[in-house]
């Protein structure tokens, strides 16, 4: 064959391929009376949620096959805008970002696809999927009709359409539904905005399949559009009847779908590992299947939030771990679990016509690796990039930096009296140096933003090295600029001086940057921020878990890929290292440790460690020997909450001022000693809930932190499915005291009991105390 013949031959092969795809059978998906219809036949959607960037591309097919062997018929996935458009107008749909390829692989295995293109997705993903560079616009209002925001959204959705519109079932693909925005009712009430997003989704070409909105049962009516399908999100344990009650009343003929049934939950650094009971998950799913309710199991396979892509929640600010195992049926590394087998048994009783359960695919092999040792290191501070100059403090985004650390340097005036160095606002973890000496570490999670200083010579050098963790992914706090956002001041009794004339150093997380520092032959543990480099040799690559438990706080790159963050406080102690990214022969590893390791070695383990917590202080809001003293207090309100699921509201006699509130549970509607509170809102004098962004728990008589996470701040974590629960052996009355952050004028309180049937721990009789000054806690310093 000559070159031309070869070319023609290849072309013929290519066209053959094309003929094949374009002749893929077009089908239809629609909504009938109380049911979904595929090719005009009723179908119950059994969707497995998984996220393409959270799975190495090489393993996509494996995980899709795992979902199919579980008995699912659909894969549900978000699209992650900020991963596709990391800098404005540079779109990437290759490699890990090849979302269309993911859909095609699913089609190869006869799995339908539900796409949730955002633009906002939440998902415990950096900024809920929105690109950080949107924050360069000072006054941007994300998720509103802000013109610039909408323009960028339309552009992104247009690109999604180019990738995916032709994969709609009507055009021979496997996409059966597309979501519009995400839980918008939990963010705002603005139908106009949802209409704009709907229109942008349609303009992108998603015209042939049903579009839907997903929300909570408490919020779906805020923004429900007439022409969209409404679906409800809730988790393991929830009372299914209660969840669908208002929807069935509003739209008696609509098919019902739980668009996110939470199989487990996500982990935060420094907080107890989250799990959800397998039997409870199964019974909820059985309940839905028995009533032909469609669902997407979020997550069926959570995978890993590689690199810097983890988000954060607020209040209180709290960044996500790298593992997104989620206690899901398919583990982070793609393994079967107890939940997997129980669910497979269940689903085998509800197969679609013609659906056969394939064998469970083998899991990807794990390997033993020799202990990794390091040979070189480079100090972060001795390897600074060129400085930028700025008169005033500005956040990282203003210096065109998205992720990593940023250092602000200036000289101090003489300080001769007890003063505070106050940082407004700090995002997220800072090390403060004076004349090169580490003075203190400040952690936004713990509300720390100032240090005491005194006896400082004029001209001393101040360095504030700030590490950004994930951007907040839920609620108004998604406007989460990094570094130092406003100012740094020296405050004494006499005066306040704002520091100016900064030198600013950007320390990004790009492999190009971290690998090209000036490394020297020394791998001893350093107490200052340092990059460590080493190599390790493998005969055969395979999956392994890197044990980071001797390291402080930072990030790991293997063969140029960032596999995630670590932090000694846990609960995650190992990082999932996919074998697909390892090589036969020599592999390179770089660790950035901003705090400092105890030992510079890494063991390879054959199992993950996701539940070993070394929090810096007790997570409990009551120390041994402390008791809340209400003796001299008079309740502002005494009463009885109604029984049953859903929000309960009680009102004060008029408007009162309060900075601290204490809710005391006297007894429960159900048996047992426990109290459980999913959410508390305080109604302000305008009748609206006041912001909870600066709330803090002052006291809780007991908290259940064993075998799950039911700490007291779950009453204002904005999540209706998470709750504070008292310890099983502690008697009534139970109290929680909240600091509202400032004196507020309040009219009442709203309380949400647990979502479960019978509302375990639901408060019946209560007393509400409110004060402008703190409550007395006996035994507290
Ligand atoms: C919500 C969001 C999801 C995810 C889950 C919690 O339902 O829609 O993106 O954040 O909560 O895991
Ligand atoms: Ca909650």
Describe the structure.
It is built from 11 helices and 43 strands. Strand 8, helix 5 (147-164) and strand 9 (175-179) form a beta-alpha-beta unit. It is an alpha+beta fold. The strands form 10 sheets. An 8-stranded parallel barrel has the order 4-5-8-9-10-11-12-13, surrounded by 4 helices. The model is unreliable at 1-23 (pLDDT under 50). Helix 5 (147-164) packs parallel to helix 6 (191-203) and helix 9 (278-290) packs parallel to helix 10 (338-347). Alpha-D-galactopyranose (GLA) is lined by residues 121-124, 182-183, 233, 260, 266.
Briefly say what this structure is.
With 781 residues, the chain is α+β, with helices and mostly antiparallel strands. It contains 11 helices and 43 strands. The strands form 10 sheets. An 8-stranded parallel β-barrel has the order 4-5-8-9-10-11-12-13, surrounded by 4 helices.
């Amino acid at each position: 064959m000559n070159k031309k013949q070869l070319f023609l031959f290849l072309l013929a092969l290519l066209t053959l391929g094309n003929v094949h795809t374009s002749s893929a059978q077009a089908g239809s998906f629609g909504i009938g009376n109380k049911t979904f219809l595929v090719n005009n036949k009723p179908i119950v959607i059994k969707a497995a949620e998984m996220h393409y960037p959270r799975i190495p591309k090489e393993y996509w097919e494996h995980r899709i096959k795992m979902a199919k062997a579980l008995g699912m018929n659909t894969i549900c996935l978000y699209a992650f805008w900020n991963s596709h458009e990391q800098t404005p107008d540079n779109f990437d749909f290759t490699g890990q970002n090849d979302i269309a390829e993911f859909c095609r692989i699913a089609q190869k295995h006869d799995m339908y696809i539900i796409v949730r293109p955002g633009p906002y997705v939440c998902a415990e993903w950096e900024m809920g999927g929105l690109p950080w560079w949107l924050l360069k616009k000072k006054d941007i209002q994300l998720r509103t009709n802000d013109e610039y925001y909408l323009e960028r959204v339309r552009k992104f959705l247009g690109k999604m359409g180019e990738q995916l519109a032709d994969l709609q079932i009507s055009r021979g693909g496997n996409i059966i539904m597309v979501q519009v925005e995400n839980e918008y009712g939990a963010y705002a009430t603005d139908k106009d905005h949802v209409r704009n997003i709907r229109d942008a989704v349609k303009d992108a070409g998603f015209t042939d399949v049903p579009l839907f909105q997903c929300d909570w049962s408490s919020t779906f009516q805020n923004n429900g559009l007439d022409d969209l399908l409404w679906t409800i999100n809730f988790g393991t344990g929830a009372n299914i009847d209660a969840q669908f009650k208002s929807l069935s009343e509003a739209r008696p003929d609509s098919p019902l779908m739980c668009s996110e049934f939470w199989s487990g939950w996500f982990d935060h650094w420094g907080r107890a590992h989250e799990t959800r009971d397998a039997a409870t998950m199964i019974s909820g799913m059985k309940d839905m299947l028995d009533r032909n309710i469609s669902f997407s199991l979020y997550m069926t396979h959570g995978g890993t939030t590689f690199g810097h892509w983890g988000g954060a929640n607020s209040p209180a600010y709290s960044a996500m771990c790298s593992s997104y195992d989620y206690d899901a049926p398919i583990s982070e590394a793609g393994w079967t679990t107890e939940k997997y087998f129980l669910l497979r048994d269940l689903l085998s009783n509800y197969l679609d016509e013609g659906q056969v359960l394939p064998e469970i695919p083998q899991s990807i092999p794990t390997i033993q690796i020799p202990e990794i040792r390091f040979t070189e290191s480079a100090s972060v501070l001795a390897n600074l990039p060129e400085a930028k100059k700025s008169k005033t403090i500005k956040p990282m985004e203003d210096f065109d930096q998205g992720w990593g650390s940023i250092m602000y340097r200036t000289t101090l005036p003489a300080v001769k009296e007890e003063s505070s160095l106050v940082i407004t606002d700090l995002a997220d973890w800072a090390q403060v140096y004076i004349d090169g000496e580490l003075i203190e570490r400040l952690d936004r999670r713990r509300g720390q933003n100032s240090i005491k200083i005194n006896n400082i010579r004029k001209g001393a050098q101040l360095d504030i090295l700030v590490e950004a963790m994930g951007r907040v992914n839920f609620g108004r706090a998604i406007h989460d600029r990094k570094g130092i956002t406003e100012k740094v001041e020296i405050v004494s009794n006499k005066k306040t001086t704002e520091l100016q004339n900064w030198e600013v150093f950007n320390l990004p997380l790009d492999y190009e940057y971290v690998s090209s520092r000036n490394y020297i032959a020394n791998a001893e543990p350093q107490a200052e921020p340092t990059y460590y480099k080493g190599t390790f040799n493998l005969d055969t690559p395979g999956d392994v878990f890197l044990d980071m438990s001797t390291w402080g706080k930072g990030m790991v790159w293997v063969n140029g890929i960032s596999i995630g963050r670590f932090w000694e406080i846990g609960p995650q102690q190992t990082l999932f290292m996919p074998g697909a990214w390892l090589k036969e022969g020599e592999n390179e590893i770089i660790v950035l440790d901003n705090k400092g390791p105890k030992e510079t070695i890494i063991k390879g383990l054959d199992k993950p460690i996701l539940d070993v917590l070394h929090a810096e202080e007790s997570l409990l809001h009551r120390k041994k020997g402390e008791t809340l003293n209400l003796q001299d207090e008079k309740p502002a309100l005494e009463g009885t909450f109604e029984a049953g699921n859903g929000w309960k509201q009680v009102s004060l006699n008029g408007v009162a001022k309060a900075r601290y509130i204490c809710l005391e549970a006297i007894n429960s509607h159900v048996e047992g000693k426990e109290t459980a509170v999913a959410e508390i809102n305080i109604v302000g004098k305008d009748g609206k809930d006041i912001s909870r962004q600066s709330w803090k728990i002052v006291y809780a008589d007991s908290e259940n932190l064993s075998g799950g996470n039911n700490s007291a701040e779950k009453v204002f974590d904005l999540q209706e499915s998470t709750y504070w629960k008292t310890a099983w052996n502690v008697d009534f009355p139970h109290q929680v005291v909240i600091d509202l952050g400032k004196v507020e004028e309040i009219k009442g309180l709203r309380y949400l009991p647990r979502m479960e049937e019978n509302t375990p721990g639901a408060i019946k009789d209560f007393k509400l105390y409110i004060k402008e000054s703190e409550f007395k806690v006996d035994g507290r310093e």
